[in-house]
Amino acid sequence: MKVLVPVKRVVDYNVKVRVKADQTGVETANVKMSMNPFDEIAVEEAMRLKEAGIATEVIAVSCGVAACGETLRTALAIGADRAILVETDADLQPLAVAKLLAAVCKKEGPGLVILGKQAIDDDANQTGQMLAALMGWPQATFASKVTIADGKAQVTREVDGGLETIKINLPAIVTTDLRLNEPRYVTLPNIMKAKKKPMENHKPADLGVDVAPRLKTLKVTEPPKRSAGIKVPDIKTLVDKLKNEAKVI
Amino acid sequence: MSYVAPVKDMKFVIKELAGLNTLNQLPGCEDATEDTVDAILEENAKFCGDVLAPLNWSGDVEHSVRHADGSVTTPKGFKEAFKQFGEGGWQGLHHPVDFGGQGLPKLVATTGIEMINSANLSFALCPLLSDGAIEAILLTGTEQQRATYLPNMVSAKWTGTMNLTEPQAGSDLSLVRSRAVPQPDASYRISGQKIFITWGEHDMAENLVHLVLARTPTAPAGVKGISLFICPKFLVNPDGSLGKRNDVFCASIEHKLGIKASPTAVLVFGDGKGEVGVGADGTAGAVGYLVGEENRGLEYMFIMMNAARFAVGMQGVAVAERAYQKAVSFARDRVQGRAVEGSAAAVTIIHHPDVRRMLMTMRALTEAARATGYIAAAASDAAHHHPDAAVRADNQAFYEYLVPIVKGFSTEMSLEVASLGVQVHGGMGFIEETGAAQYYRDARILTIYEGTTAIQANDLVGRKTARDGGKTAKAIIAQVRSTEAELAASNHADLKVICDQLGRASKALEDAVEFVAGSAKSDIRAVYAGSVPYLMLAGVVIGGWNMARAALVAQAKIAAGTEAEKRDPFYAAKIKTARFYADHILTRAGGLRASIVGGAEGVLALSEEQF
User: Fold this and answer.
1) Which CATH number applies to A2-224?
2) Other C-beta atoms lying within 10 Å of the C-beta of residue A181
3) Which of A212, A230, A238, B313 is deepest in the core (most CB within 10 A)?
4) Which pTM does this prediction carry?
């Protein structure tokens, strides 16, 4: 079974994100970029499936600027067998990415697509779901445990009420939550091997996908600064403020 | 956040100052492409920052502990971390592919040495010693010895140690007394006591491969009668499995000022313990195997010594970087006092000019020493890999001149930096829990082991300067001058100041070289009285030269780089750091020159009784 792992290049989680001066987006120049941590969990899970003899081949895919190739090299260094870069300078929104990934899925015919539940830059939490819809495949989002057997995936999902376990037919889309696994450290020999692994390069047009944005960003601003706290004289005032000012109860 | 590897500065130095993209054109260095090196730095930084750095403080508190049976337990987490280190393949970074390494250049390995030592100096000593032992077996061992020991050492399943020092033989190894008696089966029986054996006993590896200096019964006295032996903790069976426990045991471990997690062992060879009994001739002792030829042990040790001294120099850079990061984070956080120019409320101490001065001193010294270390590593690579013999020879001379400076200057500056790190913290810095004091204590060994600063300075004066009449030193000064010419051609205000200060400093170094080369025969005591100041002067000037080169590159990026480069605050900071170095560190050159050229009188005048 082939496993396809889409990975996104995002601003590194250690970086304090700043809004661009012209408020068109966040500053990404001179900022450390790395693989979306949720996608790293997805690559790790794919590797575990391969080590367990369930996956036969792990293919990493990334959509975006040429530098996404570096993110793919990281996936290859973790252990993916080969990589596909869909290269474009266009501003990609989740629907465009889902369409590109759908085109790749049709080409590669994976038994499982596993990706992060969301990317830590825009936190959209849409790509996996959209991809499932486009492919007409079952989806299991927010996975904290994945077991593959007999052409089915049994997935434990982290939902608001606790944990939910579902069984879906393959091929399917699984999106990873934080507690699915703890990604391994990349080893030096694997970094060296990654250099020699194949990386295909496609353009959206080759895949017949129109990636033009469907949503328009009007303005990006910093979140409002938190104001200082206050002391309340008694519980009655606290309850009153929670009810009428904060409106949380 | 305890340690984040300064990957950006490291990449800048290896690419722009140490010439990675020239180096990776050389045969044998092709794998070190820019993107591969970037990936190595990023992944190594993660491992060092996430796994090793958090064990630094706990290791200091827990120490390694010796038990009654001679075994040693390392602090919690060390064993697991070392296993991860081995599985990550990091021990093999620059060791030959034939034995399971990656064969990458020393320049790349140097970034790894820096990171692991910043993260955890005590831990890092174990692989550092293994590196030395691997190198020794590689260069002087038989094919069988290499096959027996190297694959497991390169994969960090086994670790290596260097057994030189004995109670009466420290800096002077001619006094080594340990005995090695040849046996009919060509092995030896080794007996004696070795002290200060770093990672001489521990629980992180299946086997330890001790390299031991000892004398055979027929050996001449002095340095020419010392041989080198492999003495494994467990003998290795012909099929590679571990055999009998050898007669080498840890008698105690030292209580030290710093690097407390690193067990510093007293090892006793041939105490009648273990499972090897006595030799065929009845001689008691640990079983050992001669490395190379008899009586050439010290010579072999010296091959390793340059590498080990270089690595210790990088430990200086490493601990300085960690101390700097800690001081910066405290200074950003700690609110104390109003601004000198007046402020409505108290400010964070990073606002205060003198805290700035301390932080900039720490930063400038660390960056300069890093650059000097990395260009030395690149020279060593060129000395090994360049196709042209003349280029190889020049690079070797350059590297050898720099080794005592990397070792001596970087470690001395690490004391200054770690001390300033404590100072930035104020009273809290003196409290152990803060953590700044640990760097100061850990750094304190660096100017001592692998040859004290004075030993480095002797080397710089004798072998590296006087012997060639100052030729190598002057060739370096000529390179400094050409950087000065580039600076002079610029209209940039900071570069002009750097140019002036570098000019004065390089003249001071030139005077000192003339004095050392010129007076080595006529007034040797005067020259050696100024040897450490000479080493420090060379370190100050070569560091300043590299900072100047960095400033030139940064200025070019700002003036004519990509849009992103033009706006990158890294480059602007580089120029200002170089400017600071010029005004505050390069200016030390004049004072050092005066101590060297005219300072011997005061050093040597008093009679012994007058002390």
Assistant:
1) 3.40.50.620
2) 19
3) B313
4) 0.94
